[in-house]
Amino acid sequence: MKGLCFKMLLLKERVVSGLVSKLKENEGAGVIEVAVIILILIGLSLIFKDKVTELLDSIFGNINSGLPSL
Questions:
Q1: What is the Cα gyration radius of the chain?
Q2: Can you give the pTM of this predicted structure?
Q3: Cα(56)–Cα(45) distance, integer angstroms
Q4: 26-32: long-range contacts at Cβ-Cβ below 8 A with a sequence spacing of 24 or more?
Q5: What pLDDT was estimated at residue 45?
Q6: How many CA atoms lie less than 13 Å away from 58 in the CB half-sphere?
């Protein structure tokens, strides 16, 4: 009976350590995904920089023209 309990404890430790190692391995994947998304956003911002600048200039121009002078 003691041998069976000892084997069960060893099995439990192996399962828990295996799960912990798998979770640690997947942490790096999240970092890589975030880095790729940031790189894509930077690339898109460089591609559409002129269009975004024109849009913001237009919006702020409309806001400034609608405000009364101080």
A1: 29
A2: 0.42
A3: 14
A4: none
A5: 86
A6: 6
Q: What is the DSSP letter of 68?
A: P
Other Cβ atoms less than 10 A from the Cβ of 55: the count is 11
Q: Which two tokens stand for residue 65?
A: 């023209």
Measured CA to CA in angstroms, residue 28 lies from 4, 7, 23, 38, 40 at distances of: 38, 33, 10, 16, 19
Per-domain boundaries in the chain: 2-61
Q: Which residue has the tokens 């849009």?
A: 55
CA–CA gap between residue 31 and residue 21 (Å, rounded) = 17
Residue 2 pLDDT class (50, 70, 90 cuts): low
